[in-house]
Amino acid sequence: MSVPALSVRGLRHRFPDGTVLDLSRFSLEVAAGERVAFLGGNGAGKSTVVHAVVGLAEPEEGEVRVFGKDPGREWPSLRARVGVVMQHVDDQLLGLTALDDVELGLRAHEPKREARRERARAVLRRLGAEGFADRVPHALSGGEKRRVAVAGAVAHGPDLLVLDEVFGALDLGARDEVLGVLLEEHRTRGAALLVVTHDVAWCPEFADRVVVLQEGGDSWTGPPLDLVSKEGIGALERAGLEPPPLFLLAREVAAETGRLPASARTADLLGFCHEHRRTGG
Questions:
Q1: How far is CA 153 from CA 6, 97, 158, 255, in A?
Q2: Cα–Cα distance measured from residue 100 to residue 250, given in angstroms and rounded to the nearest whole number
Q3: Measured distance CA(193)–CA(182) in Å, rounded
Q4: Largest Cα–Cα distance in the chain?
Q5: Hey, is 101 helix, strand or coil?
């Protein structure tokens, strides 16, 4: 049996001000090569889970493993296998220029500076970001910073990508570019993805499975298409997330017709609902 890319069970975390986050009933597992969307309302604990996964938070209780290792104690040995984009990307952009920042993560993998710089330029080019390679990261827009952070996360070819609100501040075109790179990493290298997001409608575009962290630490999980079901809609509502109108419409159509859409992707839901209207079903 293969070791999961990551597993989280029964976390309890105490913040410096004494506040306790109790996720003792929550568990999360991402298999090698799996693509998981991680949803939850504001303050539910998603980012705390991410911090524990990348060794930035030490829980009082519970277990966190990344490729079978404790990231809190063994992060240096895991660093080469994991790419990370944090919610607040300013905290991880350390280079003098965007190109320097991407190159920083390659120093342990490529000893030759020119080779590193060409590799860094190539990944920025894939993300439509080569045009600001020589600009100071903190002078970039929010969406530009996020693309630089994604470039740094994928440049060394990790086996697991942990991405917290990676699509935030991106316009639709930039989202497509970022999504294309992430899916290419999955398709060509088998990289596992854990994508934390509040954008419910976007999840079916990339995920094999959705995990919804609900109030009180309970969770719901299922394939993206199940978000269109009564149970999936209920899970979103219990998490304080607003179901997309298209999901609600598709659920009504499915209830009326006894049929299901091909997937929960926007194009398939639109086609499913349009066909129902056209045939007068």
A1: 17, 16, 8, 42
A2: 47
A3: 8
A4: 65
A5: helix
Q: What are the distances in angstroms from CA 50 to CA 46, 129, 140, 179, 257?
A: 6, 26, 25, 20, 40
In whole angstroms, give the CA distance from residue 272 to residue 270: 5
Length of the chain: 281
- pLDDT tens-digit map of 55-80: 999 899 999 999 999 999 999 999 99
The residues pairing with 161 across neighbouring beta strands, listed in sequence order, are 83, 193
The per-residue pLDDT for range 194-227, each reduced to its tens digit, is: 999 988 999 999 999 999 998 778 899 999 999 9
Q: For residues 266 and 246, give the distance between their C-alpha atoms in angstroms, rounded to a whole number.
A: 8
Find where tokens 């049996």 sit. Answer: 1
Residue the block writes with tokens 């895991």: 78
The Cα–Cα gap between 219 and 210 comes to 10
Task: List the domains of the chain with CATH numbers.
Answer: 6-243 (3.40.50.300)
Note the Cα 111 to chain centre separation in Å. 30
